[in-house]
Protein backbone atom coordinates (compact mmCIF):
# COMPACT_ATOMS: atom_id res chain seq x y z
CA UNK A 1 0.00 0.00 0.00
CA UNK A 2 2.82 2.43 0.85
CA UNK A 3 4.55 1.66 -2.47
CA UNK A 4 1.34 2.52 -4.32
CA UNK A 5 1.01 5.83 -2.45
CA UNK A 6 4.65 6.64 -3.13
CA UNK A 7 4.26 5.87 -6.84
CA UNK A 8 1.08 7.96 -7.04
CA UNK A 9 2.73 10.88 -5.24
CA UNK A 10 5.74 10.69 -7.58
CA UNK A 11 3.50 10.63 -10.66
CA UNK A 12 1.46 13.61 -9.46
CA UNK A 13 4.63 15.54 -8.66
CA UNK A 14 6.03 14.95 -12.14
CA UNK A 15 2.76 15.93 -13.81
CA UNK A 16 2.32 19.11 -11.78
CA UNK A 17 5.89 20.34 -12.22
CA UNK A 18 5.96 20.49 -16.01
CA UNK A 19 7.50 23.58 -17.53
CA UNK A 20 6.55 25.30 -20.76
CA UNK A 21 9.19 26.02 -23.37
CA UNK A 22 8.39 28.63 -26.00
CA UNK A 23 10.09 28.59 -29.38
CA UNK A 24 12.36 31.56 -30.13
CA UNK A 25 10.02 32.89 -32.81
CA UNK A 26 7.21 33.27 -30.26
CA UNK A 27 9.50 35.17 -27.89
CA UNK A 28 10.75 37.37 -30.76
CA UNK A 29 7.15 38.09 -31.83
CA UNK A 30 6.29 39.13 -28.26
CA UNK A 31 9.33 41.41 -28.11
CA UNK A 32 8.39 42.97 -31.46
CA UNK A 33 4.79 43.48 -30.30
CA UNK A 34 5.99 45.12 -27.09
CA UNK A 35 8.35 47.43 -28.99
CA UNK A 36 5.59 48.50 -31.39
CA UNK A 37 3.14 49.05 -28.54
CA UNK A 38 5.75 51.09 -26.62
CA UNK A 39 6.31 53.32 -29.63
CA UNK A 40 2.57 53.81 -30.10
CA UNK A 41 2.09 54.56 -26.38
CA UNK A 42 4.83 57.20 -26.50
CA UNK A 43 3.20 58.84 -29.54
CA UNK A 44 -0.31 58.72 -28.09
CA UNK A 45 0.32 59.54 -24.41
CA UNK A 46 3.37 61.75 -24.74
CA UNK A 47 6.75 61.48 -23.07
CA UNK A 48 6.50 60.63 -19.37
CA UNK A 49 2.75 59.98 -19.51
CA UNK A 50 2.74 56.22 -20.16
CA UNK A 51 1.51 54.21 -17.18
CA UNK A 52 1.81 50.65 -18.52
CA UNK A 53 2.67 48.88 -21.77
CA UNK A 54 1.96 45.25 -22.62
CA UNK A 55 2.21 43.40 -25.91
CA UNK A 56 -1.58 43.81 -26.31
CA UNK A 57 -2.01 47.46 -25.35
CA UNK A 58 -1.00 50.40 -23.21
CA UNK A 59 -2.41 52.78 -20.62
CA UNK A 60 -1.71 56.48 -20.23
CA UNK A 61 -1.39 58.20 -16.84
Can you offer a commentary on this structure?
- The protein is mainly α and 61 residues long.
- It has a domain at 21-61.
- 61% of the residues lie in helices and 11% in strands.
- A two-stranded antiparallel sheet has the order 1-2.
- A hairpin with a 4-residue loop joins strand 1 and strand 2 (58-60).
- The chain starts with a helix and ends with a strand.
- Keywords: Lipoprotein, Signal.
- Residues 1-23 form the signal peptide.
- This is Starvation-inducible outer membrane lipoprotein.
The tally of strands reads: 2
Tally of helical runs = 2
Range of helix content: 55-70%
Share of β-strand residues: 5-15%
SSE sequence, one letter per element = HHEE
Radius of gyration: 22 Å
Poorly predicted residue ranges: none
Please outline what is shown here.
Keywords: Lipoprotein, Signal. With 61 residues, the protein is mainly alpha-helical. It has helices at residues 2-16, 24-45; strands at 50-53, 58-60.
Question: What are the key terms here?
Answer:
61 residues; mainly alpha; two-stranded antiparallel ribbon; 2 strands; lipoprotein; signal; Starvation-inducible outer membrane lipoprotein
